[in-house]
């Protein structure tokens, strides 16, 4: 870490602590939320009124954490009926065949390790969503309903 970074962190921490004193709040060493994306990318520290009960503190932090988790979840990818039919066909569960390029793509997907499947998913998210749905309980029936336009 650079001296400049350390200085900015120290200055920000000092300003935060001074604000707590003005507001009459006490920092908590037991309550924090860390947002992790393979490494910490953000951390929220809490300070509370001195008389706030521990249960209320915990409920507040957990409620904020749950709300953040809901907002950070990606929107599910819609699966068009054509995509559902192609994936079903490629796996021998009905549907209908795709064109030559997509047929080869779906075959390739079957051989892909996790890293390469993630690359394919980035380029063809609807197909990735269809394969993911197939792996879920009752997924083939759900994908069939999408392919038939009844979902």
Task: Walk me through this protein's architecture.
This protein is α+β, with helices and mostly antiparallel strands and 151 residues long. Helix content is 61%, strand content 13%. α3 packs across α6. A two-stranded antiparallel ribbon has the order 1-2. The protein is built from seven helices and two strands.
Query: How many strand units?
Result: 2
End-to-end Cα distance: 53 Å
Mean pLDDT: 89
Widest beta sheet: strand line-up: 1-2
Question: Structural class, from helix and strand content?
Answer: alpha+beta
Number of helical regions = 7
As a whole number of angstroms, the C-alpha radius of gyration is 25 Å
Strand content: 5-15%
Q: How does the major sheet shape up?
A: 2 strands, antiparallel
Helix content: 55-70%
Please summarize what this structure is:
With 151 residues, the protein is an alpha+beta fold. It is 61% helix and 13% strand.
Topology readout:
Blueprint: H1 3-23, E1 26-36, E2 40-48, H2 54-72, H3 81-90, H4 100-111, H5 114-123, H6 125-134, H7 139-148
Antiparallel strand pairs: 1-2
Helix pairs in contact: 3-6, 3-7, 5-6, 6-7
